[in-house]
Design brief:
With about 725 residues, this protein is α/β, with parallel strands linked by helices. It has 23 helices and 15 strands. The strands form 3 sheets. It has an 8-stranded parallel barrel. A 5-stranded mixed sheet has the order 1-2-4-3-5. Strands 14-15 form a two-stranded antiparallel ribbon. It is globular. About 0% of the residues have low confidence.
Amino acid sequence: MRTKFIVLQAILCFMVIHAAMAEDGYRLWLRFDAIDDASLLEDYRSGIEGWKVYGTSPTMDIVRKELQEGLSGMLGVDVNELGSTLSGSMLLAGKKDSDPFLRQLSTQVAYDSLGDEGFAISTVEADGRLINVITANTDIGVLYGVYHFLRKMQMHESIDSLAIQSSPRIDIRILNHWDNLDRTVERGYAGFSIWDWHRLPELIDPRYTQYARANASIGINSTVLTNVNANALVLSPYYLEKVKALADIFRPYGIKVFLTARFSAPIELGGLETADPQDETVINWWHEKVDEIYKYVPDFGGFLVKANSEGQPGPQNYDRSHADGANLLADAVKDHGGIVMWRAFVYSNEEPEDRAKQAYNEFVPLDGEFRDNVLIQVKNGAIDFQPREPFHPLFGALKETAPMMEFQITQEYLGQGTHLVYQGPLYKEVLDADTYARGQGSSVARVLDGSVDPFETTGMAGVSNIGNDRNWTGHLFGQSNWYVFGRLAWDHTLSAEEIAEEWTRCTFSNDPEVVQSVTGIMMESHENLVDYMTPLGLHHIMGPGHHYGPGPWVSQMPRADWTSVYYHKADSEGIGFDRTASGSDAISQYFPGAQPFFNDPETIDEKYLLWFHHLPWDFKTKSGRTLWDEIVFRYYSGVEAAKGMHDKWQDLEGLIDEGRWEHVNMMLERQVNEAILWRNSCVLYFQQFSGLPIGAEYEKPAHSLEYYENMRHPYAPGIRPRW
């Protein structure tokens, strides 16, 4: 009996150890595992025979810890036992003036161009030996450089002759958490909020530090902790103590904390009778509240505000403008060095002529009326994070007020937490688009970074997909969208493909087959989803409320512009939203140089065709197919492409650890099924208007249109089951 007990103990012990070692995605891309290439390992070890970090501060302590753990893990030795006496090939890290020897080795570094966050990594020869130097003007710049250096090692790149100087192109690189104080997350598909408000500030979850590490490793320097549909309670002392605890953790990683400000907070929290931005008692209340916040968090970044949008209170409640509201808060934070990010996602409570025109109509007349420390946060497109939208016409239209980008990292309209969709190509499509604001070459990216019009502060925001799921983002590949956002916010000239390859190498493997296959899946995934959901410029045809499944038939909602039929306008004559001069004329909001790319249905890039044009079913597309046949072709080819992604992933079995391979494999199976659901629902729905057959070469939908229309998704995120 005792023998059986001992054997059972051994089995259980093995299972515990195995479970602890199993890959589950928690480490994200910061996996510093032993390098298994013997030749490369020898090169690295001979190139780092010793290491030394100069300087003492909380940030430099992190630099030491990251180098110690990263180098030890990859080199397979305890680097604390390596030399630090400057003998042999060395790795040195420190600020510009932290040591005379370091300064002597860094004479070729253009420190003036690095700014406060940039870094330089140089390989120099001294006394017949190679020394790699990571240096910057500030401690946080050194930390960014260390993460970059470790990433090169993760990717098995040479460190023998480095000459890198890098600084961010965007100032404020920020995550927007849509997290509520009850730990629910609006449009979040990875569990509950990672902020455990109830047990803060006493309980400090280790995830908070891991979160800060991950953000710093890709250059994200700010975070908004709370939902844009704000709760005024977060500004109370009870919660500010908790905010302080998080800010103290994030500060050494270079991350500033921001909060959302509910415009009616003076009433709800302060007991005032009004929140009128021109009322003296309201002005005083906000100044006193801001002073209080800075006592808790001396480097508080400022506010993000959603006002007069989707039921949120704002200055228009008092017949004031968005500029009046933003300036109220901007004046309150200005002396502390804070900023206000005022969201442009607004649309009238009246029935609009075209919702796509609303933000432009409201904000362009106010250009020049905002304080210098106000940024207008603009979604990438004019509707709402659709699988594809043309760039927002506000980019470039604001000449005196800084616009900042708002991308959605979470996938509200892109399959949510069940679809593999790498959004790098989507982000780049928008960033590289030419606004023609000041002539050709005025890309959205150059508008954002201040190259087109100089702005005091620039910014780029990403709506976070992070939750308390063990792998952070629900779907493992959701991590890639967090990663690509950070990398592009730092340097928008990087390509989506090179970032996908970086993430793949750091997250999975440097095996050429894995890198090629996974990168390929990622790069095609966005276009595949567009084809099986919203091809040819169709948009906003998801189910109401949760936006989870197909709903092209949605027609009964409190507002016309919350329905699907408002956007696709399918009838017996054709399909699409006419936004040319003969329709809503939304096209006129774009600069004259850009308009020709959208105006002619014969020459337009067909990915925007039905966004700008209502066309007959027999319109000839560039493929030679009629519009109806092209729509059918896109829906069916999207499904086949989703199946192809699944097949490519299955070929990687055994090349990727079992836990993560199984997770993604199951998700891809579901994605294929949901792609089929989208295809069948939309093709059958639009067929009733076209009156045309589905080609004989295609598999016919398994059910009737009525069957798909009657499907319900009671457990979709954002839906509360009704018993």
